[in-house]
Amino acid sequence: AEYQYILVERKERVGIVTLNRPKELNALNFQLVAELADALEEIDRDEEIRCIILTGAGERAFAAGADIKEMADKTPIEMFSGGFAAWERIRRIHTPLIAAVQGYALGGGCELAMHCDMIVATENARFGQPEIGIGVIPGAGGTQRLARTLGKYRTMELVLTGAQISAQELAAHGLVNRVVPPGEHLTVALQLAQTVAAQAPLAARLAKESVQAAFETSLEEGLEQERKNFFLLFSTEDMREGMRAFVEKRKPDFKGR
Ligand code: HXC
After folding, report:
1. CA 173, CA 212: separation in Å to the nearest integer?
2. What is the pLDDT of residue 82?
3. Cβ 29 vs Cβ 68: under 8 Å
4. Count of other CB atoms within 10 angstroms of residue 69
5. Which residue of 53, 107, 136, 148 sits 20 to 30 Å from the alpha carbon of 252, by its own alpha carbon?
6. Ligand 1, from 24, 31, 69, 144: best to mutate by most atoms within 8 Å of Cβ?
7. What is the value of ipTM here, to two decimals?
8. Centroid of chain to Cα 162
C-alpha cells in the first residue's frame, strides 16, 4: 500500500514502521494514525514478520503528539468519528511491537510508545503528557497506562503540570526497557526485535496477549487466559519441535504452525 506519512520496511523477520513527518516532529495527524493502523494490520497478517519496530524519522522526535493545528477547530463529534478508532486497532495488533524512541515522545507520541510492548529510548528522550497546557488531557490511554506503571502520584504530577520525564526515570519504573546513547535506539531495538523474531511466533503472540490481559482483567481472569493460551500451544508443531530440540540438544527450527 502507498502511505503519505509513514515508511514501511522489512529487515528479515522484523517490520520497521517509521513516522515520517520530521519537520513537524512527527505530529500525529488523523491520516498518519489511520495509515499506521492499516500498515500494522497488514504486517500483522504477514506470517514472515514476527516483530515490529515503531520509530520516528529525524533526530528530534519519536512524535510530539497529536497534530495540534489539525485539532484546533475540531468538535467532539469530529474527534469521535475522525478516526480515533485507529488507536484501538493499534492496541489489537498481535505481533510484538517495540518502540524505538529518540527525542520527544509527548502527548499522543508518549501514548503511542506505550501502545508498544517494549520501549527502547535514547538518553536524551523526553516523554510527557503536555495536553493540560493546551486545555485538554491525554486521550489515547496516557492517564491509564502511566498510572498503572508509575503509580498515582507521579502520574498526577505529569498530567497536571505537563512536565517531561526522562528515559532514565521511566526505566527505573520499568516503563522503558533500554536506555541507549543517542543514535543507537534503532540498532538496539533491532537486536531486541531479532531475538523476539527467533522465538516460536504463535507462542510470542499468545505471550503478548497474556501479558496484556494483566492490564485488562482481574487476576483470576488473567490467570485463566494464561492457562488456556498455555494449553492451546500444545496444539502447535512448534511446541513439539521446541521440546524435541531441547531433548536432542539442538536449536529448534520454528515454523509458525
Ligand atoms: C502540530 C507540531 C506539534 C504538534 C511540534 N509541531 N509539535 N505541530 N502538532 N503536536 C511543529 C511546530 O509547530 C513546528 O512547526 C515544528 O513542529 C517544530 O516544533 P517547534 O515547536 O518549533 O520546536 P521546539 O521549539 O524545539 O519545541 C519542541 C516541542 C514543541 C517542545 C516538542 O514543539 C511542543 O511543545 N510541541 C507540542 C507538544 C504537545 O503539546 N503535544 C501534545 C499534543 S495533544 P512550524 O511549522 O510551526 O515551525 C495530544 C493529544 C493526544 O497529543 C490525544 C490522543 C491522540
Report:
1. 18
2. 79
3. no
4. 10
5. 53
6. 24
7. 0.98
8. 22
